Amino acid sequence: MILDEEGLPQVWRRHEALAGAVWAAFDAWGIGGNAIGLNIRDRARRGRSVTAARIGNGGAGALRKWLEDEAGVTLGIGLGMALPSEPAYADFLRVAHMGHANAHMVLGALAS
Asked: pTM for this structure?
């Protein structure tokens, strides 16, 4: 089993490092008051397995579609942030960095 091979402490460290990379990217993209940002401002309260973010004016939906169609990258929807019938539904996304995800995968998604 992959978890046994890697070891639980190493898995937790990897998840922490990957989460930090995603957070740093979103922090940089949000400089200057852009509509992009993380849903949870307090770093201590963020999950180390998935990052919830927003891009206003339907930007998250457009980004998810472009990434899937053009780069083969799938980002998650913003669970519970808005109903699918609401315009704000397209403002939210999730970036996963758990399981067997590694730096190449996460950095590839961010670069895309």
From this structure: 0.87
